Amino acid sequence: MEKLYYADYAVDKMAVQAEDGIVENEMVPEVTEQIQQPTRLVYQWVDITDEFSQACSELHLGELLRDSSFTLFEAMSAIEMMDPKMDAGMLCNQTKRKVLNFEQSIKASIVSIKDLKFPKLIGIMDATLACLVTWLEGHSLAQTVFTNLYLHNPYIIEDRYLKAFCICILKTVDIIRDRVNRAGAFEEEDFQLVTYGFKMAAETSDVRAIGMMKEVEEEVNRIIKNTRSKPGTQRDSDTQTEHCLSVAVYNRLKFYRMFLTVLISFSKEKCEGISQAQRLLTQLIELVPQMKKELSLGIQAEEGGVTKTDYPTIMGFEPLVNQRLLPPTFPRYTMIKSREEALDYMENQLLCRLQTVTLITEITSLHNMLEIFTEFSKTCPCVLSRSLLQLLFLPFNKKLFGIYSIVDTLKESIRNFIAPVALFPKSSLYNNPQAKEYVDAFLTKAVRPVCTIFQITGHNRARQREKWTHILEELAALQEEADKVDSYLHSQLIKTEPTKVHLACFGTWVLYHTLYVMINYTLAGLELELYATYEYHYIFWYLHEMLYAWMVSTLVRADSFLLEHEAQNDQQIKGRYNRKNKKKKRTKTLSREITLNQGHQQLFGGYHKALMGFQLDGRMKKSKFEFDNEEIRYSHRFAPFVHFVTPPMVHYSRYKVRLWLLFCGFFVIIHALYYNLLQYALLAIDSNVASWWGCLPQKRAFISISYFEFIFCSLCFYCKQIVKKKSKLMRLKETHRFLYTFYLAVMSL
């Protein structure tokens, strides 16, 4: 049995310099002379192995010793601690070399802090960018950015270029942390906020950090001018090399300064810095290709053994320096991106996405904003771009873009969506105090769900699905409130204006957002591959028959309200002036959105019918359930929709009934048309498929044309194959065999 020790301690009175201090022992790095000596605790270790063994021997089988200060959490921590498989801090013991901190590396002359050559500066800057990009992808600061020893204490660096660069990086990291934290659109797998006690150059302001970068830029720019080729003179190789290195350092200093300025511009109130950010982002994107060409000018890591925890680095970087700062959790291996990958990430992903974020301020319609947020989320942007978009849309003062009231924006959105009478000044409801109070109360309650929908689009795609279920509960309550408000407003309206109605205006607007959330929830399951193949048929059916059908119906209703409102305005203008306007501004309708949703509806309808055809043909096997059945899975997939009255939840029994009606439709059509289809198929052989379709009598008289279209597509495909037969008799036999086989397949149902 290993020896156990109890750590008692006594305060070294000679070391007491301050009331608050840091406990110093042999495992904590030495502090610099600039820092005041803290209180030091001297541990007095006592061997308790015998006492512990004797106490354990007194416990009977199955007995546990419990203490208020030693719970299950402490017990599990004691088991996991110092286990290489469970404790990330133990990875330091797996390397043979000695791990030194910043101050120790300086004393050992491993790290230089003054008079750094340009190749070293270029290498350090490029390697730091690779660490920064790796951090943005969800790894910890201790294992990425702060493997750069220079960032631990930049104020003792004597090289002006490196000192300004390190302070700029720390300010950049601090702003990114602040923006992401305030937006709250991240999860533990997205981003790590913990700083592990590292300072972020709080003594230096953002303005001063940018000023320091400009100063060193000017110094490097003077070197560039002095080493530039002059007319009539020829530079030697050393001067030319110095010029190229100076340009590379200048480009990097400029890049990091402008990137920090962009982040600061996004933080300005009322979107005042967006124009500056757009200009700087364009310059940054143009600068990246030049930096790619200069990657070879910086120092490179020596080739050597690469392990999960250790890898070769350049001067100033130590992968294991912060390993003991990590909590005793499962080791998480961090693979730092290469310098080429880091620049590609900045050019093709982060900077381009930030450009897209700046365009949101040009959108005035809330529905268009939601569409842009949705499409932006589909590109799987990084946590920084998602957070900046959220803060730009709804900053800390809870006003849209920091300027517009959310309630007023919702009014304008509803007015443009369905044109309710209560929101127009000419209506009697608009000046009715009680009606206005009802509307304002409803809009106030609608603020939170609508803002939450926008915030959900800011999370990563995997986390959005579970968040859609939570917002559905709020929308169900808001829908009930909207129905009450619509009912009251309609009862008041018919008293003063009997020709007008106010039925389901606010309810239709809420229903649109409810269906939007339902569709996104269902499609997220497809995107994340949560559904098994044998579940696709009822997923596609629900999208086709329920969600998109209701969405199209909702949009058509809203569009009819818009057109009716426009017609009333035209009639009033015509009666007032008795003349036609030469140029009339048409009301923006929802025809585009209606067409898109109709296309999605038909697409999922086709998917569903194709899957049912595959099952009938035996090409898709049905699953043999062991611990559940199809009804349980169906109910589980659509469980979040149970709370809603509109649209109503279609339970499994009703789904099976509708599915049986679909099969019956196949049976009726084929049974009635079997013999006629034979001669029409022969006609298609001698002419073409189009004429065969055109000669069908009363083709629009069927109960459901969509069922016949499925059969028709199958026949068209098969007829094309039959045309290749040489003998007409052979073609006749093949056609008859196909139709009879198809007939028997449906009859077998």
Automatic annotation (TrEMBL):
Domain of life: Eukaryota
Record keyword Transferase present: no
Residue span, NAA35-like TPR repeats domain: 357-656
Keywords: Cytoplasm, Membrane, Transmembrane, Transmembrane helix
TM region(s), chain numbering: 659-682, 702-723
GO cellular component, as recorded: NatC complex
Residue span, NAA35-like N-terminal domain: 62-155, 159-205
One Pfam family recorded for the sequence: TPR_NAA35
Compartments where found: Cytoplasm
Database matches in InterPro entries: NAA35-like_N, Naa35_N, TPR_NAA35
Family the UniProt entry places it in: Belongs to the MAK10 family.
Name listed for the protein in its UniProt record: Protein MAK10 homolog
